[in-house]
Specification:
Layout lengths: L35 H23 L8 E4 L9 E2 L2 E2 L17 H4 L3 E4 L19 H8 L16 H5 L9 E6 L2 E9 L4 E10 L22 E11 L18
Antiparallel strand pairs: 1-4, 2-3, 5-6, 6-7, 7-8
Pfam family, one: Sulfatase
Keywords: Calcium, Hydrolase, Metal-binding, Signal
Protein name: ARSD Arylsulfatase
Length: about 250
């Protein structure tokens, strides 16, 4: 790595393909995992991230470098080879990549490291967005976000440094392509997070949690279901989105 800007602000963006499709593990990592090709890719990705962190440490930049690790979306469940599923696992969360609003497609890990500035081993349970990276990086570099347009992201620094207890995102809108599928409401005074689904994909086969017959879930048309009233979930109590709340029992 060429760190010509070692003593000036720099941005290093690394976009890894390893947990997307196609899975491209090198020969060195084939068979490394007990979880097949997808697991091998995770192993190689872990090694690559470690190599980057080692270089930053060796250049004595560890305490002056803000590192953010995240994923673009959840696992692509429909990825397969014959009868073997290659698309990863989204834990307790329903759905996966390309599904508009289900948690399995939009809830991803966000891991931040900045030794000496941010406390270690803390977990923040507040809704944030990958759009927040832009204003956070601008603030760290001493700049200002454009004032001639609406910027959807919010700096993460107040949350991370403990000067704010809640995310500035009261509402978050979840699209599938250009179609609004779901909206999340972060009710700040109670800490409750509500989610309304206006459109959901039709899983094929039924109950599978994915669109295996289509290969990818559609955003509109006969492969989707419109909900009026919308499906409502209390994510604070039901993160798996398994039990829609009846409108007549939830006046709020």
């Amino acid at each position: 790595f060429d760190f010509r800007n070692k003593h000036r602000p720099f941005l290093l963006f690394v976009s890894l393909l390893h947990v997307h499709t196609p899975l491209i593990t090198t020969e060195k990592f084939l068979g490394r995992s007990k979880h097949g090709l997808y697991g091998d890719n995770v192993e190689e990705m872990d090694w690559m991230v470690g190599e980057l962190l080692d270089v930053i440490s060796k250049k004595e930049l560890k305490n002056t470098t803000f590192i953010y690790f995240a994923s673009d979306h959840g696992g692509a469940l429909e990825a397969r080879s014959g009868n073997s599923r290659l698309g990863g696992w989204n834990g307790v969360y329903k759905g996966g990549k390309g599904m508009g609003g289900w948690e399995g497609g939009i809830r991803v890990p966000g891991i931040i490291r900045w030794p000496g500035v941010l406390p270690a081993d803390i977990a923040i349970d507040e809704p944030t967005s990958l759009m927040d990276i832009f204003p956070t990086v601008i603030q760290l570099a001493g700049g200002a976000v454009p004032q001639d347009r609406v910027i959807d992201g919010r700096s993460l620094l107040p949350l991370l440094q403990g000067t704010a207890q809640h995310s500035e995102h009261e509402f978050m809108f979840h699209y599938c392509g250009v179609f609004l599928h779901a909206v999340r409401w972060h009710q700040k005074d109670s800490g409750t997070v509500w989610k309304a689904h206006y459109t959901t994909p039709v899983f094929q086969p039924n109950g599978s949690g994915a669109c295996f017959r289509r290969g990818i879930c559609p955003c509109f048309g006969d492969g989707t279901t419109h909900h009026d009233p919308p499906l409502l979930f209390d994510l604070s109590q039901d993160p798996s989105e398994a039990n829609p709340l009846p409108a007549d029992s939830e006046p709020l």
